[in-house]
Design a protein that fits this description.
This protein is of the alpha/beta class. Helix content is 31%, strand content 18%. About 7% of the residues have low confidence.
């Protein structure tokens, strides 16, 4: 769909969306897009696929944008606790959050946010312009492939994919269907990370030698359900079979689902992938290796969870060697943050701050003819900007795929307890059959055939 036809489409459905409000006798200027307001015909209709704690955070980030209308919330769970710090979430909870915001904003009762259980019904809706995929990791690939095929622009939470094969399929689909795609690796929209990457890319620390990504250890009980490991009946209004989706069949227990899913390898990759969509992504940015990857993974070691249900690494370390001689270390042993070390100093960044040694590096100016990296100060607004402009966002699919591949390579090396040679162009291990079997996962019927149908 080109820009003109897309704008006509948005204008057509925007009129229908505006009808959810009671028709006033006198049409206010805001409804016509005057006095600085955005007309309903110009708003982007967004649906959320996934309604957990991260969905609540992201909904609150999109709602203030006048160019956006959140119309649809989809989740297999109607409403329950078991999310962040044991709090409540689910589709009805997030729907109410949206309705309350618009009611307060417009000074009249708004109750038009629609709820769905099956994401396929949402993707089939003609009036939806964009979707956010904010499901557990094992449920990223198929909704992304189907949304891309339907021409929907996509904001997908990190980590991009459960496996390297799924990430490749997602990036290829986005490219084929020419949809706008933003990954929720929001550190790219943080000035601290951008600043240190610009310092590194412009040689302000000399020749770059080593990058260290310090990620959190452990399997924190975010959902307050770690002790609930016994098999119990599935709660009412929770479609557990759909929640499992392409993952293997498993008995239901509260410790398995909602926010704590990330500590189970069938659905995620532990802290290695949970934070692997953040600091290693910044490492690739600063190293100028965003569209490639390492050629060797070495010195991999891990301590694995002994929890009855959780099985991801609680402590970990691995090193990635690049063809140009750079070394990237990913570890749970040294605090939290990312450090670039060069021949003339080092720079460090974390959320909210950055530093250098020597301090004088911080005073370095980036000249007009030097490298200036993509600037975004708001990850969500950047996505909407690009939906309208059709330009590429700051965290596109291919970049996210290459970044999270580092985490997947590390997990595979730690599982096999081997040094591994990697071909970043072919995205295959060299002369290692066992490792190559871990590039993908089997999917339960019928999801295996759905994945194959939409993969390009």
């Amino acid at each position: 769909m080109n820009n003109n036809s897309r704008r006509a489409f948005i204008k057509k459905v925007g009129t229908a969306t505006s009808a959810v409000f009671a028709a006033p006798t006198i049409i206010p200027a805001s409804a016509l897009g005057k006095n600085g307001h955005i007309a309903p015909s110009e708003r982007i209709n967004i649906a959320f696929i996934g309604a957990g704690n991260q969905a609540g955070n992201d909904v609150k980030s999109f709602l203030p944008d006048e160019r956006v209308q959140i119309t649809t919330i989809c989740d297999v769970n109607k409403k329950s606790d078991g999310y962040w710090n044991g709090k409540v979430a689910g589709r009805e909870f997030i729907m109410q959050l949206v309705d309350d915001f618009y009611s307060e904003k417009h000074g009249k009762k708004y109750q038009s946010c629609q709820g769905y259980e099956d994401f396929r019904d949402v993707i089939a809706l003609d009036h939806i312009d964009a979707v956010e995929i904010v499901t557990p990791d094992h449920w990223h690939a198929i909704p992304v492939l189907m949304a891309a095929a339907a021409g929907k622009d996509i904001y997908c939470q990190k980590p991009l994919a459960l496996t390297i094969e799924e990430g490749r399929a997602m990036s290829d689909a986005v490219n084929k269907h020419q949809v706008v795609f933003q990954t929720g690796s929001q550190q790219r929209s943080d000035e601290n990370f951008r600043r240190v990457c610009e310092l590194v890319r412009n040689g302000k620390i000399g020749e770059l030698q080593t990058v260290t990504c310090s990620l959190p250890p452990g399997t924190p009980d975010f959902g307050k359900t770690s002790h609930l490991t016994e098999t119990v009946p599935v709660p009412k209004d929770f479609n557990y079979d759909m929640w499992l989706g392409p993952a293997p069949e498993a008995p239901y227990c509260p410790a398995r689902t909602h926010v704590n899913f990330r500590w189970i390898l069938d659905y995620s990759g532990g802290m290695v992938t949970d934070w692997g969509g953040h600091h290693p992504d910044i490492a690739q940015w600063g190293m100028d290796t965003e569209y490639t990857g390492p050629v060797k993974i070495q010195n991999a070691r891990a301590t694995w969870s002994d929890h009855p249900v959780w099985n991801t690494a609680t402590e970990f370390h691995f090193e990635c060697l690049y063809e140009n001689g750079l070394k990237l270390i990913v570890t749970s042993q040294e605090g939290r943050g990312i450090k670039f070390t060069g021949t003339e100093g080092s720079v460090w960044a974390n959320r909210g701050s950055h530093d250098a040694d020597p301090k004088s590096i911080l005073d370095a100016e980036i000249g007009p003819d030097e490298i200036h990296l993509y600037k975004s100060d708001n990850h969500f607004r950047n996505f909407i900007d690009c939906v309208l402009s059709r330009e590429e966002p700051i965290a596109p699919a291919e970049v996210a795929h290459r970044s999270i591949t580092i985490a997947h390579l590390g997990n595979i090396a730690m599982m096999l307890q081997q040094d591994l040679d990697w071909d970043p162009q072919a995205e295959k291990f060299i002369d290692n059959f066992a490792a190559n079997q871990l590039l993908s996962r089997s999917m339960r019927d019928p999801w295996d055939s759905v994945f194959k149908k939409y993969a390009v």
